[in-house]
User: What shape does this take?
Amino acid sequence: MTDKLTVSVLGTGIMGAAMVRNLARAGHTVRAWNRTRAKAEPLAADGAHIADTPAEAVESADVVLTMLYDGPATLETMRDAAPALRPGTVWAQSTTAGIDGVAALAAFARERGLLFYDAPVLGTRQPAESGRLTVIAAGPAEGRDRVTPVFDAVGARTVWTGEDGAAAGATRLKLVANSWVLAATAAAGETLALAEALDVPPDGFFDLIAGGPLDMGYLRAKAGLILEGRLTPAQFAVTTAAKDARLVVRAGEQHGVRLDVAAASAERLRRAADRGHGDEDMAAAYYASFDDGPAA
Assistant: This one.
C-alpha cells in the first residue's frame, strides 16, 4: 500500500493550517475545509485543495483529520460531512474534546462504520509548523498503516495508549498533560505580576533560580512572551486554553478529584479574555492579575 494518501483536514486554525502544510510537504493529497473559508484559502499556495463544505472535503478521502475548537463543533462538522463519508474511512480526531466529547465522536464513528482514532496532540504553533508535535493516539491496529503516515507528517513522535479510541485513553493523557501546562503558565504569569507589584526586576528572579531545580525552560519561554510583548501571534490562544481548562476541571469532577489550580486557571483565562486578550497567547492570562492595569 502506498504511503501517499488523500487526507481531508477539517479545521484550519493555528494547528490545522500547520498540519495541512506539513501533510502537503510530505507528498499527500490534501483537501482542507474551514468554517470561515478565507482562513483556509492561503493554504492553496501550499498545494491544498480548499473545499466549500465538509462533505466536499472528505469525498474519496483515505484519512479524515479533524482539528476543530471542541467536541460539539467536531460532531456537527462530521455530521455535515456524513453524506460523503465511506465506511472504513480512517478518522483521526485531534481536537481536545474531553472525555464526554470523545465518547460522542466515537459513537458517531461506529454509526458510520469509520475507523476511529482518538489522536489529540501536544504542542503549540511553533512545533506544529515544524512538524514536531507529539501525537497521543488510541485506535485499532487494522488501520494504523493508513493513519501512521499522517501522524508522521504532523508530528515527531506518536505515543500509542491503546487500541480503543472510544475509551478516550489518549484524551485522558492529554488532559493530564494540559493540567500541567495550565498550572505552569498560570504560575509564570502570577510570578511576573507579583514581581512587578513588589518592584522586583524579573531578571533578579531568573538569576536567583538559574541552573537550579526551580529553573524551567517553559517558564522562561512564557515569561519572555509577556516581558517582550510577543503575545501575538498566539502559540496557543487564551480562549482555547480556557476551554481546555474547563475540560480538565470537568474530568476531575467526574472522577472525584478537586482540581483547584485548574479551576483557578480557567477563571484567570476567562478574565484575560474579557479584558480583550482572547486571541493572544495563553501567557496573556498574566493580565488577569490586575484589576485596572497594566495596559494591554
Notes: DSSP finds twelve helices and nine strands in the chain. The chain has a mean pLDDT of 96.
